[in-house]
Amino acid sequence: MYDFLYELEHKWFKDQVYLEGVILVQINDNANPNKIAVIYNSKSGFTQKYARWIAKAVQADLLIGKKTKAEDLLHYDTIVFGGGLYAGGINGLKLITKNYSNLKDKKIAVFCLGATPVRDEIVEEVRNKNLNVQQQESIQFFMLRGGFNYETLTPFDKILMNLLKLKLKRKKVLTADERGMLRSYTHPVDFTNEKNIEPIIKYINE
Ligand SMILES: Cc1cc2nc3c(=O)[nH]c(=O)nc-3n(C[C@H](O)[C@H](O)[C@H](O)COP(=O)(O)O)c2cc1C
């Protein structure tokens, strides 16, 4: 039964079939006895990096969110979803929130990352915007710091970010974060660090 799409990183799987650059992997419960899935959406690679680190650390299946259907998730006991922040929303999180009633008995963790530094008030704001009260009770939420690389953005995202740049440039007084943001348009930043996944790994293994 070849019914899931995985990434090239899945070296621990025995049965692999190459298909147009992705591997179609046979479900092999011996290779993933804990039935853990790490699902991610990533526009410029920052979330992908964290998702790969997490999947490797816990021997999980790594799935691309945009290619994953809700029913694919029913196979797993633990679901870890990751996505970048775009105007405060977590990229592709609807896969989990829209199907929450079918997934709510599973162990679920959501992580997101943005260009901004991680602070308690920002974590709270993002959590409240993306998960309702019931979801917040059962979904463990994590925020990590990603990065920003203007050159890798889609034309549409470049337009959006240029609008933000104009807005920032019109401001008389900029905060340190805003100055950092403006500088990152010409100097890409990458704050990803494998150590940051430790609380997520701890939660998965609890
Ligand atoms: C159009 C746009 C909107 C963004 N909005 C936010 C935001 O609201 N908060 C934030 O911290 N970062 C924001 N970012 C930065 C991304 O979240 C950051 O680059 C992240 O690391 C992207 O991860 P990804 O490449 O895995 O998608 C935005 C970036 C773009 C291009």
TrEMBL record:
Residues spanning the membrane: none
Pfam families for the chain: Flavodoxin_5 (PF12724)
Gene Ontology process terms (BP): heme biosynthetic process
Flavodoxin-like domain residues: 36-206
A GO molecular function held by the record: oxidoreductase activity, acting on NAD(P)H
PANTHER family xrefs: PROTOPORPHYRINOGEN IX DEHYDROGENASE [MENAQUINONE], PROTOPORPHYRINOGEN IX DEHYDROGENASE [QUINONE]
Stored InterPro entries: Flavodoxin/NO_synth, Flavodoxin_CS, Flavodoxin_dom, Flavoprotein-like_sf, Protoporphyrinogen_IX_DH
Coiled coil spans: none
Full protein name: Flavodoxin
